[in-house]
Amino acid sequence: MTEPLKRPPQKNPQKRTISPTLPPYLRSRKAIAFSAAAAEGQLAMQVCGQCHQVTYPAREICPKCWSMDLRWETIVDGGQLIAETKLRSSINTYFRERMPWRIGTVQLDAGPTALMHLHGDIKPGGRVKIIARTDKSGQGVLFALPEKETPDMADDRQLRELTCDPKHRRVLITDGRSELGRSMALAISDAGAAKIFVGIAEDWRGYEGQDEMQQIRGVELKPLDITDTISVDELAGDIGGKTDILINTAEHVRPGPTMTRDGILTARDEMEINYFGLMRLIQAFGPGMRARGADGDNSACAWVNLRSVYALSNWPAYGAASASQAAAHSLAQCLRGELAGSGVKVVNVMHGPLDDAWQQPLPPPKVTPGQLAGSVVQALQQGIETVALGPVAEDIVQRWKDDPMLLERELTQVARSMES
Amino acid sequence: MSSESGSALRLFADAMSAGDIETVDLTHALDPDFPVIILPPEFGQCAPFRVEEISRYDERGPAWYWRNFTCGEHTGTHFDAPVHWITGKDHPNATVDTIPANAFVRSVCVIDVSRQCSEDEDYLMTVEDIEAWEKENGKIPAGDWVLLRSDWSKRSGAEYLNFREDGAHSPGPSAEAVKFLIEERDIVGFGTETVGTDAGQAHNLSPQYPAHSLFHGANKYGLQCLSSLDRLPPTGAVLVCPPLKIKGGSGSPLRVLALVDRSAA
C-alpha cells in the first residue's frame, strides 16, 4: 500500500536547498532512441528485422543472429517480477540521497529480462506493467508498476521521481484571461495542486469567466503580462522561488500568411507573445526552477509549453503564426538543454487547431481548451515530455517523423495553401 | 517690450522663479500598466508602453543606465494631429512635425462638467454647458485650447475604460458642442481626461466620433488622457503641449503642462 503523500511542510529557512544530483546518465547514441521514446511515454525496444528477437538494452547488432537490422518498436508492456532487492548503499550520490531504493529483475512478456525500478505496491513474484520514462537526468529508464491500479499509487516516492504530479505542488498558469487559462486552472486544481497562481494581463479591462476563475480552489490571481519584461520580473521576484510547475497558456494566433497581411504588427504581436514572452519567462523563472529541481516533495519539476503542431512544419493558412510557433519550439529545445540535469522536465504539448475565436472558421476536428488542459495534467501525472494531442496533431507529428520534406510539400501544395 | 527688464518674457521668467506662476503637470506617467484604447480585435491595435533595459551599471554597460521604450503614437497622455482622422488627412501641416509650433503654447479654458459625469458616465457636454460656462467666465477666445474636465483621471483600473459588453462608457462632447467650438469659437484644440477626445459610446453618435471627425476635419488638435484638470482655473492658465517631432506622425505621447498665475491668490 502506498502511503498517501502529505502536503509538504513549510521549508526550514535555516537549511540549504538541496542541489539536484543525477542518476547515471551516460548512454550510447543508440540508447538515446530509448530515451526519446520514453519522453513520449512509449515503451520501445529494438526488434530484429531478421529473427524478430527483442533486445534490451540497446545494441548495435542483434545478439541472437548478429543482424544489423534492429528497429525500434513499441512492445507489449506486461511482465513478471522474478527477483528483487532494496538498495541500501550506493556510490551514486543521487541514489545515496534516496535510500532505500527498490529494484528488481523482470521477465518481459516481449522476451528479454531487464533490471528496473520497482513500484512499492508490486507483490514479490507478481505480474507487472512496465513503463519507460525519463528520469531526473533526462534519460529513459524502465519502471515496473503493479499490473492493476492500487490506491494512491501515483504517490509512490520512486515513481514520483519520474513524474511531475501537480499534487501538492505550486503551479503558475501564465495567462488566465482565456477559456484555456480557466480550463487549465480547473484541471490543475482538480489534480490536487497546493496553489495555482494565475497571471492576468491588463487587469484594467475585464475578461470572460472572471468570476468563475476566482472560485477555483487554490487560485490566486497575479498581475502578469508576458509582453512586459518588468511585469514578468516582478512576478518572478514574488513567486519565482515557489513555482514548481510553470504552464505557459499565453498565445497569440491570427490567421493568414504574409501577403494577405498589411505590415508586420500582427506578426510582431505573435512573436512578442509566442517567442519573446517565452524568453522573458525563461529568463525570469528558469534560474529559480533549475535550482529547485530536488527541493523535496514539492520540488520544481516541469515547464509546460503548449504549441501548435504547425511549429514543426508551416501551414500557410496560419503561416505567420506557424513561424512564431516554430521560433518558440526551437527556444523550448534550448530550454530543455538549459534545464538538463536540473530535474525539471520540459513538457511540450503539440496540438492541432484550437476551438477558439481565431480558428472558428476551421472545420473539425479541433482541440477544446478542456481537452488541452486534461492532456497537460495527464502528461504531468505520467511524467511524459512530448504529447501530440488530437487527430490533427497526431497525424502531422507522424508524417513529420516519417518524412519532414514530404510533409512540407503536402502542407504547401496548391490545395492546402488555397485554404488561406 | 521696450527694455529688456520690462519685456513680457522677462516678467514671465521672474514670475516663474518667484513661484508666482505655478507649473501644473497634466500628464500621466508612461507606464506599462496604463490603459490604451481597445478596438474590436480584428482591427489593428495601439501598442502599450514597454521598456527594455539596455544596461544598468552591469556587464551591458558598467557605469550607465538606459533603456529602449516602445509605444504607439496614441499611448498614454497624447496629442492627436488632424491627420489622425480621415476627415483631416488633406489639411496642410496636419502631422505632428509640421503643425505650427505656436499652437502648442496657448491659453486654456477648462469647462467643468465633472458633476454631470459623476451622475452619468456617458455624459455628453452640451452647447448649453458651454454657454453656462461663458456666462461665468466670458466668451471662449478664438485660438484657445478647451479642456473638458470630467475628473475621469481620478479613476483607475477597470473603472477607467469602464468596458462593458457594449463597449466603453465614458463622457465626452456632444456633436453639437463640437460644432459650436469649431464654428462659433474657432478654438485651436480640445482635450479630455478620458482615453480619447470622444465619449466611450461615441460610435453611436452622428457623426460617429464627432470630436475626432469634426475637430480634425476642421484642422483642430486633440489631447487626451490628461490628468489634474481639477487644479486649473476655468480661464487664465497657459497650456504647453508640444508633441514629439515624429516625421509624418499622427500624434505623440507628450508632457502637458499648464502655467497658472498664483500671484493674485
Q: Mind explaining what this structure looks like?
A:
The complex is a heterodimer of chains A (420) and B (265). Chain A is α/β, with parallel strands linked by helices and 420 residues long. Chain A has helices at residues 29-39, 93-96, 157-160, 179-190, 210-215, 229-239, 265-291, 319-339, 369-382, 390-402, 404-412, 414-417; strands at 44-48, 54-55, 70-74, 78-87, 101-108, 113-118, 127-134, 140-146, 170-173, 195-200, 219-223, 245-248, 302-308, 345-351, 386-389. Chain A folds into two domains: 29-160, no CATH class; 170-417, Rossmann fold, CATH 3.40.50. Chain B is an alpha/beta fold and 265 residues long. Chain B has one domain (17-261): Putative cyclase (Glucose Oxidase, domain 1), CATH 3.50.30.50. Chain B has a nine-stranded mixed β-sheet with strand order 1-15-13-5-7-11-12-4-14. In chain B, helix 6 links the parallel strand 11 and strand 12 (221-224). In chain B, helix 5 (175-183) packs parallel to helix 6. Chain B is globular and about 65 Å long. The two termini of chain B are 26 Å apart. The interface between A and B is medium-sized, with 16 and 18 residues.
List keywords for this structure.
heterodimer; A: 420 residues; alpha/beta; Rossmann fold; 2 domains; five-stranded mixed barrel; 15 strands; globular; B: 265 residues; Glucose Oxidase, domain 1; two-stranded antiparallel ribbon; 6 helices; 18% helix; 26% strand
- Tell me the helix content of chain B: 10-25%
The pair of chains with the biggest contact is: A-B, 16 and 18 residues
Amount of helix of chain A: 25-40%
CATH class of the largest domain in chain A: Alpha Beta
According to DSSP, the number of beta strands of chain A is 15
Please report the distance between the alpha carbons of the first and last residues of chain A: 56 Å
Unreliable stretches covering 5 or more consecutive residues of chain A:
none
Largest sheet, strands/sense/barrel of chain B: 9 strands, mixed
Order of helices and strands of chain B: HEEEEEHEHEHEEEHEHEEEE
Instruction: Give me the CATH architecture of the largest domain in chain A, please.
Output: 3-Layer(aba) Sandwich
CATH superfamily of chain B: Putative cyclase
* Number of helical regions of chain B: 6
Radius of gyration of chain A: 22 Å
The SS-based structural class of chain A is alpha/beta
User: What is the 3D shape of chain A?
Assistant: globular
N- to C-terminal distance of chain B: 26 Å
Question: Gyration radius of chain B, to the nearest Å?
Answer: 19 Å
Share in β-strands of chain B: 25-35%
The CATH architecture term of chain B is 3-Layer(bba) Sandwich
Uncertain regions spanning at least 5 consecutive residues of chain B: none
Number of strands of chain B: 15
